[in-house]
Amino acid sequence: MVANPEDKKGYTFAPYSGRVEAGKIRELALALGDDNPIYTDEAKAKEEGLDAIPIQPTFMEVIDMWYGSSFEDLMEQLDIDMKKLLHGEQEYEYFAPVYAGDMIYAETKVTDVKTKRNGMAFYTLETIYRNQNNEKVMAARMMLVKMP
């Protein structure tokens, strides 16, 4: 019997944590072709009024990749065949600055699942990121489409 995708609503994956490393910020800047010195030089970042080297807007993907479960493992936990998967949407919401040296704690939850009569399922996953002070610094939401 095939599991009902809607049974995964509310499912929470194992939490993870990792330190924001200046070297990883620098590597992402190089990969993106972003030569803004605030991502590589702490003195320049402070000249711009920042506390330290800041992260780029999508840097939390680095935290996910280095410290979280693999995407393949996440899909296995949701019973999604990767050959039938589409990435529908991605959005980020920012609450507070994140800097090199910060410790990030993350938890991902399936916040919604909608199924269609044709067998398609739409999963909404939300990851909440908190810093070492338990301050919510960011939320990332993605919608995945499981094809029949």
UniProtKB/TrEMBL annotation:
<dbReference type="Pfam" id="PF13452">
    <property type="entry name" value="FAS1_DH_region"/>
</dbReference>
<dbReference type="InterPro" id="IPR016709">
    <property type="entry name" value="HadA-like"/>
</dbReference>
<dbReference type="InterPro" id="IPR052342">
    <property type="entry name" value="MCH/BMMD"/>
</dbReference>
<dbReference type="InterPro" id="IPR029069">
    <property type="entry name" value="HotDog_dom_sf"/>
</dbReference>
<feature type="domain" description="FAS1-like dehydratase">
    <location>
        <begin position="9"/>
        <end position="139"/>
    </location>
</feature>
<dbReference type="InterPro" id="IPR039569">
    <property type="entry name" value="FAS1-like_DH_region"/>
</dbReference>
<protein>
    <submittedName>
        <fullName>MaoC family dehydratase N-terminal domain-containing protein</fullName>
    </submittedName>
</protein>
